[in-house]
Design a protein that fits this description.
homodimer; 6-stranded mixed sheet; 23% strand
C-alpha cells in the first residue's frame, strides 16, 4: 500500500524515458491535506546532490504538498545547471498541481555527474500528475528502483490512523550506500515539529544503523508527510513508535536486497560503556571487508571481529572481550572460546554478538556479506 | 639480498612444520654486531598479538640481537598461553645463540585465535640457528610468506654502508591488512634513537599510506636493526632517506601483491589545507568499496571519488573540487569536466588526483581495486 495507505495521499509511477531501458523512472506523491506538514532527513555527505540542496531548503518551512522522485540519474555534481533542473522539476509539478514550487520536494537517484534528460523528465511530471491515484503507491515504489531487485513498502495501521512508506536502495543515511530514498506518509494530524522529532528519532536507530558497504551517498533522503486526513492526533510516543516500526521494516528490506548479498548480518554490541561506543564498534565490525568475506564463506572467523573492535576508541579491555556467532561463544575473554565447528552458518541471517564487558549500553547494526556478485554489480557498469 | 645485504647480519629460513603444507614457515635474523641497536613500529590495533606485546617490551631497551619470525599462525587472541609461547620462542632462540631472551624480538603471522604448534616451532628455531648464513636473507624472506605470491626484499647501498630488508603481507601499519611483517637491517653505525627517528619518519609516509583494504592487523611489525659492521656513521638525513627508500620500495611491493588485486591505485591529494586533511581524504577515497569496484571495471567513476571526499572533515568547498583520472580532469569545479571516455584505464596502474583547492599540502595513498578474487581469497578458507 506504500505511500497511499494513509488517507489524503495520491501517487503515480510512470516510465518517462529517463532510463534507457524503458523501465518506470518517475514517481509523484501528493499530499491532498487538509494538513501539509512535513519533515526530512538528508545525507550527511558534504557533497550533496542538487535535489538534496533544494529539498533541504524547501523543508525549512515544514510544509510539503508534493514529492517528485526520479531514478535513472542522481543529478549530483552537476553544478548550477543541475540545480536549475531540480528547480524546473519542482516548478513543473507546481504548475500541474496548482501549488507553489516551494511546496515540492525533489529526489533523484542514479549515476552521479550526469545531467538529467529534462526533455523527458518534464513531460513525465505532467503525465504522472494526470495519473495520480489513491491506489498509486505501489507504482510509485516501483518507479524509484535502480539496482533494487524488489520494491519496498511498509504500512502500520493504528487506531484510526496510518503510517506508510516506500524506499529504494540498499544502504543507509549517514553514511549511505548508493542512494537511499524514502517517502513516508501519515494521515495523523500532527505539526512539522512533531514529525521532525519522530523522524529523527526513528532514523537514528534504523536507517542510520543499516550499513551495507560503508559508502555514503550524495542523495540520501527520507521524507515524512502528514495529511491530517484521519482527523486524529495520536499521542506522540505512539506515533513515534509507528514511524520507527515502518523505518525499521523498510531498513530491513534494504539490507535484504543489498547488492550481491548472500547473508544478512546482525551485529549486536552489548555491555558497552556508552551507546556511542556500541555504535562505533558495531560499525567497525560491519565495515570490515575481511570479516564480510569470511561470513560469505560461512567461516565464523571471530579473529576478524576482534581485529575490527581493536581499531575503535571504545572503552574495553582486550582480554575481557567475548564474541558469539549464531549463539556459539567462539571467543571468551579475548581468546579461544567454544568450538567454532559448532557454529551453524548455513542460513541467510548471521547473528554476531560482541560483548565489550565495559557497561550496559547496546546497539545493533545491520550489514551484509561481501561477495563476488557485489564486485560484479559495481564494476561491470556505471551506477 | 634482503636482511643479509648489510654487513654483520646472518639469517635462515626453514620449514618447521607449522604450515601443514610443508612450505617454509620459520625465519631467524641475527645481528652479529659489533653494535646491536634497534627500533620498531607496531600495529596501532588495540587488540595486539602476543608477539607484538612481547616485542614492544623488548624494544624499550633499543637493543635487539635476533628476530624470530613465523608464518602459519598469528598467535593473536590466544590469551596467557599465547604469550608464554612467544616467551618460550625467544628463550629457545636465546639459548641457541647464547644471548639473553630480552634481546630477541618475535613476529608471527597467520590465522588469529589458534595456538602455535610449539612442538614443531621450538625444534625449528634450533634448526634455523644451525643454518644461519650471510646468504640466508632470501630464504628468510621466503619463510615469512602467507598469502604472498612473491617474497619481497629491497636494498639500498650508499658510500660504504647499506640498508636492506624483507617484508610479507599486502597491507599497512596503522591500520593494516592481514599481517605486515618487515625486518630492515643496516650496517651503519647508529644508536637506537637515530634508528627510531628514521624509522618513524619513513613508515609515516610509506607503509602508513599503503591501504589495501582498510583492515588493521593485530600483528603488524616493522623492525630496524643496526650492526655497525660497516664502521661508518652516515649523516642522519642521508640515512633517513635510505630507510625511506627501502620502506617505499617494500610498500610498493606489498600493494603490487595485494590479495586478488588487478589494479594498483595511486591516490594523490593536492592543494589541501593541511597534510592531515590530505591523508584523511586520500584514505577515504582509497577505502571506498564502490570506487574500488568501478576501477576494477575500468570505469573512471569520478562521482564515487567526490562522494568519498564528501564524507571527510577536510577543508574544501564542494563546487571547487577537481578530479583527474589518469591525467584527464573528469571533474572540474565539482561538476562534469573533460570527457570521461578519454580516460585510458587499460593499464595496471591507475592515478587519481583529487584537488581540494584549499591550500598547498599534499599526500599520496596507495591502494588497489576490489575484485571477485579478493572475495574468493578471503572467503574460501580461514586466514
Amino acid at each position: 500500500m506504500s505511500v497511499t495507505a494513509a488517507k489524503g495521499f495520491t501517487a503515480a509511477g510512470i516510465a518517462a524515458g529517463i532510463k534507457e531501458n524503458g523501465n518506470p523512472d518517475l514517481a509523484l506523491v501528493v499530499n491532498n491535506g487538509p494538513r501539509r506538514a512535513a519533515a526530512g532527513v538528508f545525507t550527511s555527505n558534504r557533497v550533496k546532490a542538487a535535489p538534496v540542496l533544494w529539498s533541504e531548503q524547501v523543508l525549512k518551512a515544514g510544509l510539503l504538498s508534493a514529492v517528485v522522485l526520479n531514478s535513472g540519474g542522481a543529478n549530483a555534481c552537476t553544478g548550477p545547471k543541475g540545480f536549475q533542473d531540480t528547480h524546473a522539476t519542482a516548478e513543473k509539478a507546481a504548475e500541474a498541481l496548482n501549488i507553489g514550487a516551494g511546496e515540492v520536494a525533489v529526489c533523484s537517484t542514479g549515476l552521479i555527474g550526469v545531467l538529467l534528460p529534462m526533455d523527458k523528465l518534464l513531460p513525465g511530471v505532467e503525465t504522472a500528475a494526470a495519473q495520480l491515484s489513491e491506489h498509486g503507491g505501489e507504482k510509485a515504489a516501483i518507479a524509484i528502483k535502480t539496482t533494487d531487485t524488489v520494491h519496498k513498502t511498509s504500512v502500520v495501521t493504528k487506531d484510526g490512523w496510518t503510517v506508510g512508506g516506500m524506499a529504494k536502495g540498499a544502504g543507509m543515511l549517514a553514511p549511505g550506500l548508493a542512494t537511499m530514498l524514502v517517502v513516508l506518509t501519515t494521515d495523523a494530524d500532527l505539526d512539522s515539529d512533531a514529525l521532525d522529532k519522530a523522524l529523527r528519532a526513528a532514523t537514528r536507530t534504523t536507517f542510520d544503523r543499516v550499513d551495507s558497504d560503508g559508502c555514503m551517498s550524495t542523495n540520501d533522503t527520507v521524507l515524512l508527510l502528514a495529511s491530517g486526513a484521519a482527523e486524529v492526533t495520536p499521542a506522540y510516543e505512539e506515533f513515534a513508535e509507528a514511524v520507527r516500526t515502518v523505518c525499521d521494516d523498510l531498513g530491513q528490506q534494504l539490507i535484504r536486497d543489498a547488492e550481491g548479498a548472500s547473508k544478512d548480518i546482525k551485529v549486536e554490541v552489548i555491555n558497552a560503556a556508552t551507546e556511542d561506543d556500541a555504535v562505533e564498534v558495531g560499525r567497525s565490525i560491519a565495515r570490515n571487508n575481511l570479516l564480510k568475506c569470511a561470513i560469505h564463506g560461512e567461516d565464523p572467523n571471530w579473529g576478524r571481529v576482534l581485529s575490527a573492535i581493536g581499531t575503535t576508541s571504545a572503552a574495553f579491555e582486550p582480554d575481557r572481550l567475548n564474541v558469539a556467532i549464531n549463539g556459539v561463544w567462539v571467543c571468551k575473554n579475548g581468546g579461544v572460546g567454544e568450538d567454532r565447528d559448532q557454529v551453524d552458518m548455513r542460513y541467510r541471517e548471521v547473528h554476531i554478538v560482541a560483548d565489550l564487558a565495559a557497561g550496559s549500553e547496546t546497539a545493533t547494526i545491520w550489514t551484509n556479506d561481501l561477495t563476488a556478485d557485489y564486485v560484479h554489480e559495481n564494476s561491470a557498469y556505471s551506477s
